[in-house]
Amino acid sequence: MGITLEQAQAAIQAAHQKSLELGVKMNIAVVDAGANLVAFARMDDAWLGSLDISIKKAKTARFFDMPTGDLGKASQPGGSLFNIEVSNGGLITFPGGLPITDSTGRVVGAIGVSGDSVENDHTVAEAGRVAVADR
Amino acid sequence: MGITLEQAQAAIQAAHQKSLELGVKMNIAVVDAGANLVAFARMDDAWLGSLDISIKKAKTARFFDMPTGDLGKASQPGGSLFNIEVSNGGLITFPGGLPITDSTGRVVGAIGVSGDSVENDHTVAEAGRVAVADR
Amino acid sequence: MGITLEQAQAAIQAAHQKSLELGVKMNIAVVDAGANLVAFARMDDAWLGSLDISIKKAKTARFFDMPTGDLGKASQPGGSLFNIEVSNGGLITFPGGLPITDSTGRVVGAIGVSGDSVENDHTVAEAGRVAVADR
Amino acid sequence: MGITLEQAQAAIQAAHQKSLELGVKMNIAVVDAGANLVAFARMDDAWLGSLDISIKKAKTARFFDMPTGDLGKASQPGGSLFNIEVSNGGLITFPGGLPITDSTGRVVGAIGVSGDSVENDHTVAEAGRVAVADR
């Protein structure tokens, strides 16, 4: 259903490589078009609490086909989607989750990264996303 | 896997003693490096709702290797980690949870305390933490 | 509500001592009359999966004021309580959980032990139970 | 905390390779000594329901440091551990989960495989286990 294991592993590998370049320890998750886990990697000594967050970021990005940080803008107090995070068994709406599209622009899955600042989480997720989109 | 039962019980005992000094009734939980419970004590007539909170504080402190209150600063509305609390089956991000390091500085577990003001929760947790760190 | 922390810790200590005598590594949990955790200890290198089981045994014993093994006799296929284990967030109905009564015979809590054979689990739980009942 | 990502990915790769040889489509999960996920791969068109089962098999094998099928022998009706499966958020006690030891014999994690017959699940898990044990 969408992304293949080969593509997912390519995304994991690219994100892992980017993490090494940045000197950060990440949890990296890739889900398919059904928002179910396809591949996952936790780097040695990465935060344990980021395991669940990385998977939830990937799911959130696919649930709404947008970067997790975009959803977070609307979930703040007073926002139109306030506290949407309690749905779906828990959403994560800060940066680090991105939909993955194939070469035709169709969403085939998503990647979620957690383990450092949200900026670095996003940068690593982007490296993984591009590895599939460019193939 | 990290903290021993003997160390965990020493932390509980020190935190209990500090609670008696302060005249507060606490729930005190200690988890190991895998964030799994090692020792627990609920003082007579302590808030029942604080049982789960004390365990979640200990887990949260180990999940991210930082005081729970530090995480809470980033999870406020508009913060970079808004609503991170919905992850990992529920995080607690106000003070009262602290990582426990051994004499070499390695994180071997964490302590979580709940039952009074967050200031007192933190003070009691610190007493427990020190009992292990100083051994 | 029922058992005091002092009593619960006495039960834990007696059960721990019995475990050392038997050469087994146990998870030991004590709940109060409300079936909420009062004290807990996990011995070094005890099975990780027995953490939850010890707490569930203690809760189960208090939920029905009987040894967990007794309940298990009625929960077998064809029995009157078949698959009762799925209730209450999960019951454990094999031996190792015992109600704790005070000197007047009133149930004040329960103890649950897990980490070895069900016979040894029961023996250790009994050592903890007696430490309170005899006081 | 036990197994490294490099070891876990070696286990996944070996299990994947064995699955291709057998012509089966598997979900393959590896957890560390704390029973937390380290690496995961779902082969294209593998059963979706086996995703959760593979992770639960890996956790179960580490929770009790034994092959999941061994636990299942004791959890049958009339057995000493009847319905243990309701604990720990759900255990899987049929074959396909194996503890992973390092070269010194220490348990560093576990592998869980699901997607075909339990015999094939076990065979694939064994291929993954050996890839780490032999390094």
UniProtKB/TrEMBL annotation, chains A, B, C, D:
Name of the protein: Glycolate utilization protein
Pfam families, sorted: HbpS-like
Superkingdom of this protein's organism: Bacteria
Gene3D superfamilies: Haem-degrading domain
InterPro entries: GlcG_carb_metab_protein, PduO/GlcC-like, PduO/GlcC-like_sf
